[in-house]
Design a protein that fits this description.
heterodimer, A: mainly alpha, about 0% strand, globular, B: mainly alpha
């Protein structure tokens, strides 16, 4: 729990220690808070536990009927195997991985370049460009959905990886996270490199970029979560089921020949695991990015 | 256990004095182009061109890019006399009215609940936030099962003898939209609780302690001392969730496909059915898009004016 106090500024940390020493939380408060927190956790984890329970149930055990059981009598991993053999979950996952890899890369490269220009390069129209970026951040993608589809089709990009990624290749939030990061790099570092005769690109690549590694990680993590969450656009631009990312692919399982809820639940769990892993291992990046995103929003 | 620390990062940064911002440098003429050129190309192609095209197409009977003849305000006349559009707009309005207060109240409640130094709260926090990283399409797929007639919710309700027959959460035209709202709230609370908790952790404890010395109850202090200090963030959460409610698509699409009938068809779902499948009316759908755009701008404008007043 030391992190909680450490995160505060010094005076309030002392205050916190005084009033909120663990012993000073009353028993009533402790009981009330804990019961409510348990209820909240059950509401969040319940639906997931229910999927897991169903996914682990064998073919012999009913998933319907009342009352259902939460603990499978004879747990099996068969349904997870079936998800890969009977339905092309593996292919969907590969498609998603490809979309995420390309999407994270374009977001990272474009946000870094633009963020750097907005923070450190003087050029005519910079203030105007900033204003335009802020304004476009308020434009919902759904508004231009139909025309974006027409443009992307017009470029012959339907049913391609590029067609899925390019229209949302960079997020405005990422650009602003990088701009803020570059603004905070001390001027002396850049100055010294320029004195040594390095060119603008060289300074960017070998001096500035290494100074903002933390923010690069934030933008990478946010980019992954964004691309893994994408649904409407891939649904619209892809008509070939062999190109579907998982989010779209799993939607057609319930209509497929193998409408087995056990397999659907297994597939759903598999899709949720990658972002959850990223989240639990990179909480710092996730929270920093979301906080900045919310402030910009 | 880094949760609490990170949730306050944004606030802490504001309180620490920022080093002087480095000046922007002049370079040779092509240098800025190298840096902003790629984004400009992408944005012109996939943002400004489609946006302009939307405005043009909305006044034509086009079915593809550039095609169609100019029809003036005809599309808008058709929209505003179409009962299906008004139904969809009504559903979106209802969505907003239901989802926003539910999200604001519940997230605020949860944020206050986990804003404690009690042992174990550090484990509860990341779990409560976790829905924010789950893809909405898959969350909705899971809830399609949870809300089905054999699903978890019906099992629980019947187990507690609250109902005797399974409730048709997804098959009843009166409940389908409500079920979609439930999914929005379930997932949304992850993100919004995180944002509100970050604000709560920046609240000064001194006022709270003064009120405590004056004998104010915990409830009283929370309501009259703590919450007013994060009013700006509460309004922000309301604005963000309101805009998200106007844009809602995935939840009703996955849960019910907008049905039964059109009982859970929202504006974006209507837009989707009007403009996406081949042979549909791009011109008409563009006009619907512009109506949606105006709705989003209106809600944002109202939100920001409320927020400006509440920050004063």
């Amino acid at each position: 729990m030391s992190t909680l106090t450490a995160s505060r500024t010094a005076p309030s940390r002392a205050a916190l220690a005084r009033t909120h020493r663990r012993g000073s939380v009353s028993t009533v408060e402790r009981v009330v808070r804990w019961s409510l927190m348990v209820v909240a956790m059950v509401l969040v984890l319940g639906p997931l536990a229910w999927q897991l329970s169903t996914a682990l149930k064998g073919a012999g055990e009913s998933t319907a009927g009342f009352p259902g059981s939460l603990v499978p009598t004879d747990p099996t991993l068969d349904n997870f195997v079936t998800a890969f053999t009977a339905i092309p979950l593996g292919r969907y996952l590969l498609n998603s991985a490809a979309i995420s890899a390309l999407g994270v890369t374009t977001n990272l490269v474009l946000a870094t370049l633009t963020g750097y220009a907005l923070a450190r390069i003087a050029f005519r129209g910079r203030a105007l460009y900033m204003a335009v970026l802020l304004a476009t951040a308020a434009l919902p993608f759904e508004v231009i959905l139909v025309s974006t589809l027409l443009v992307t089709r017009g470029l012959g990009l339907q049913d391609t990886l590029l067609g899925v990624v390019l229209p949302q290749a960079v997020s405005i939030v990422s650009i602003f996270v990088m701009r803020q990061a570059f603004r905070n790099v001390p001027d002396e570092i850049e100055e010294a490199a320029l004195m040594d005769g390095a060119g603008a690109l060289r300074v960017f690549w070998s001096v500035m970029l290494p100074s903002v590694r933390g923010s690069v990680a934030v933008v990478a993590v946010l980019g992954f979560l964004d691309t893994w969450d994408q649904f409407l656009w891939p649904l619209v631009i892809l008509s070939d089921p062999a190109k579907y990312p998982v989010n779209v692919g799993v939607q057609f399982l319930s209509g497929a020949f193998s409408a087995d809820q056990r397999v659907i639940s297994a597939a759903a769990l598999i899709v949720v695991v990658p972002p959850l892993l990223v989240y639990f291992f990179m909480q710092k990046q996730v929270f920093t990015g979301l906080a900045e995103g919310a402030l910009k929003g | 256990m880094t949760t609490a620390t990170v949730a306050t990062t944004a606030g802490r940064r504001a309180s620490v004095r920022r080093p002087a911002v480095a000046p922007a440098r002049r370079h040779r003429w092509w240098v800025p182009l190298v840096f902003i050129g790629p984004v400009l190309v992408i944005q012109v192609t996939f943002l400004f061109l489609p946006l302009g095209n939307t405005f043009v197409l909305a006044f034509t009977d086009a079915s593809t890019i550039g095609g169609g003849t100019f029809t003036g305000w005809e599309n808008f006349a058709t929209i505003f006399t179409s009962p299906v559009f008004w139904e969809a707009a009504g559903h979106t309005g209802l969505y907003l009215v239901l989802a926003v207060p539910a999200i604001v109240c519940l997230s605020l409640f949860l944020a206050i609940l986990v804003n404690t130094s009690m042992r174990g709260a550090g484990i509860v926090r990341p779990i409560l936030f976790s829905p924010l990283v789950m893809p909405m399409a898959v969350v909705a797929l899971m809830f399609q099962y949870v809300l089905s007639s054999d699903g978890l919710l019906n099992q629980v309700l019947r187990g507690l003898s609250i109902v005797t027959e399974p409730v048709g959460f997804l098959t009843s035209s009166r409940l389908a939209l409500l079920s979609a709202v439930l999914v929005t709230v379930w997932k949304g609370c992850g993100l919004y609780t995180l944002i509100l908790l970050a604000a709560l952790q920046n609240v000064s404890r001194e006022l709270d302690q003064a009120a405590e010395l004056d004998g104010a109850s915990w409830l009283r202090r929370t309501w009259s001392v703590t919450i007013p200090q994060i009013r700006g963030t509460v309004v922000l959460v309301a604005i963000l969730s309101a805009i998200a409610a106007l844009r809602v698509f995935t939840e009703p699409f996955v849960l019910t496909g907008g049905g039964p009938g059109t009982s859970s068809t929202t504006m974006v779902l209507y837009l989707f059915t009007q403009g996406i499948s081949p042979g549909t009316q791009a011109g008409f759908a563009s006009a619907v898009s512009l109506v949606l755009f105006v709705a989003v701008l209106l809600v944002s404008a109202v939100g920001w004016s409320v927020s400006r007043r509440s920050n004063r």
